[in-house]
Structures are given as structure tokens and as C-alpha cells.
Amino acid sequence: MSESKTNKVSRRGFVKGAVAGLVVGAAATYGVTTLTETKPITPTMQPLEKAPVNGKTVAYTLNGSPVTLFVQPNWTLLDVIRKEIGLTGTKKSCDYGECGACSVLVNGKLMLACMMLAIEADGKEITTIEGLGKDGGLHPLQESFIRNKAFQCGFCTPGMIIAAKALKDEIPNPSEDEIRRAISGNLCRCGEYARAVKAIQEA
């Protein structure tokens, strides 16, 4: 009876022995001589040096005023308008040309500022939402949007008004279908399309 007790292996002891055996076996298989030995890791590749970025001085006519500034080749017109110049009416939303929140006029043509490099606009005339009104007053489109309550959060409103301005410069009295096509690239998350159309018609 005493002999069987001394030869009996506990479950914990068995598990410990099995794990130790696996570790020793793995060490032998992969050529590890000392389990406690640590070796410094030497990187096989050096980090890539950043390529130098060469910018350029550009000149715009922004909302009727001359602007000259230094821009980097990868800066978008949207980031320059918002961050460098400080006009935040032009909104940054999707940043890949899908929502129309960043709409501006470049030489009178509707453009998405997030899809245009700042260098590409060199020498051009740019109009943002801040440049529509005159003598401190609002543009008729802005007044009509307010009068018709054609917004809720207002985030898409500047881009939609710019799109409407581009349309009315080309077609002074557009039809409802022409208005809907003109603002089809402007996403209104609040769904105020019907009032927007009415506001553009009445402006």
C-alpha cells in the first residue's frame, strides 16, 4: 500500500512534466542551447529616409482679393483654404469627392476642393461661400435658403449654395429638373432636398 502511494503521480505533476518535456524538445529541435539565453535583435533593414518635398509659391485671386502663399505639392486646395487661409465655410467631409461639401468656384466653374491640388489652382480665381455676398450683405441664394429654411444642421449648405450659384451663372432661370441635377452631387444628410430646390427656384 505504501509502495503504490509513492509511485502515484498527481495530475499537477504530470502536467508540469509534460510541459517541461515539450519545452526541452522544442529547444532541441530549433537549436536553442540555453533557454535563459537572450540575444539582441539586429534589424535587417534600415528605415527609409523621407524624400525631400519641394513646395512652390502660388498666387490666387480668392474672393476678389490677391493671395500669395507657399504650398507643398501634396496639399489640396481644400486644406489650403481651411488651414492656411482660415476660411472654414468650405467644409471637409468625405475628402474623396463624393459629398460636395467642399464645393468652390474656380474660374467660375464648380470644383471639388478636396480633389484639386493647391498647385493646380495657381493663377486662378477662386470663390468660396464667404465670397458670394457683397458689401457685407448676403447673396440672394443665401437669403433664399434662410427664408425657406432649406437646411437643418447646415453642414452641406455652403457647398449646395455654391453648386446653385454655378448653375444660375449658366442658366439664370433653371427648371426644377435642372436644379435637381445641379445639386445631385451634394449630399444632404438631413434630407432637405425639397426645400433646397424651392430656395434655388425662388432666389
List the helices and strands and how they pair.
Layout: H1 2-7, H2 11-29, E1 56-62, E2 65-71, H3 77-85, E3 103-106, E4 109-112, E5 125-127, H4 140-147, H5 157-170, H6 176-182, H7 193-202
Parallel strand pairs: 1-5
Antiparallel strand pairs: 1-2, 3-4, 3-5
Taking Cα atoms only, what radius of gyration do you get, to the nearest Å? 33 Å
Distance linking N and C termini: 105 Å
Strand arrangement within the widest β-sheet reads: 2-1-5-3-4
Percentage of residues in helical conformation: 25-40%
Separate helix tally: 7
Residue stretches low in confidence (pLDDT < 50, at least 5 long) are 26-45
How big a fraction of the residues is strand? 5-15%
| CATH domain class of the largest domain | Alpha Beta
Overall residue-averaged pLDDT value: 84
Structurally, the number of domains stands at 2
* Basic shape: flat
Written account of the structure:
It is a single chain. By secondary structure, the chain is of the alpha+beta class. The protein has two domains: 36 residues; 147 residues, Beta-grasp domain (Ubiquitin-like (UB roll), Roll). Helix content is 36%, strand content 12%. The protein contains seven helices and five strands; from the N terminus they run ααββαβββαααα. The protein has a five-stranded mixed beta sheet with strand order 2-1-5-3-4, covered by helices on one side. A hairpin with a 2-residue loop joins strand 3 and strand 4. The radius of gyration is 33 Å and the shape is flat. The termini are far apart.
